[in-house]
Design goal:
Helix content: 55-70%
Distance between the termini: 28 Å
Bound molecules: iron/sulfur cluster
Number of helices: 12
Largest sheet: none
Number of strands: 0
Radius of gyration: 19 Å
Length: about 230
Amino acid sequence: MQDSEPEAMFFDVVGQRTTKIRNGLLGWAKNNFRSFPWRQKRNPYSVLVAEILLRRTTASAVSKIFETFMSQYPDIEAIEKADKVSLEKLLLKIGYNKQRANILKGIAKYVIDHYNRQIPQNRKELLEIPHVGDYTANAILSLGYGVPTAMVDSNVIRIINRLFMKHMPKKSSLVIIQKIANMLATEEDNQLYNLALLDFGALICTYGTPKCKICPFTKICDYYLEGNPSRE
Ligand code: SF4
């Protein structure tokens, strides 16, 4: 956003592009969805576990242990009762195993003690659980409970910054990014939309050089229109 450009005008621009971005993303995703074990048969617990396991490691590493993890520890009580050494041993394959085991046990204890063994379905209570931040809370709401929610991680921040680069404030705050993400996120097909955005950030609008040449947003993306992109 130019310093002189009123904020309302900036959000008008976002509004004008919203439908194109949603449709483009959902259309792109039809043929490009990635398949991971934690995307099958989701529930709030499996989403929570996936989010903890995926921190500071790769999806392919987590893929190798996720199903075993879920069969050995199918619910929050199983984690609470788990033998710590066995839990750490399974988690060894994805790294930070002792920290991860402590985090999972801490979460399980909190949910059992405070929420009668049920992972809560509202943001305020989710955020009171140790080690559950905004992104994990939003993932549980959207992907676990089906509550339409915008999931914002570093990939989504990067995509939004590029799409609206010309109009964004020089120091765009997370509040503005979240507001844009909320405008873009669909109510209908919200889970599909959030997963599509994750995959789009991992495969097309990547951290390094984005693959603009095969992106559906070249006609509306500021980054591309301003001549920054690679032409890969
Ligand atoms: Fe990202 Fe390039 Fe697509 Fe813009 S055109 S959204 S920078 S991949």
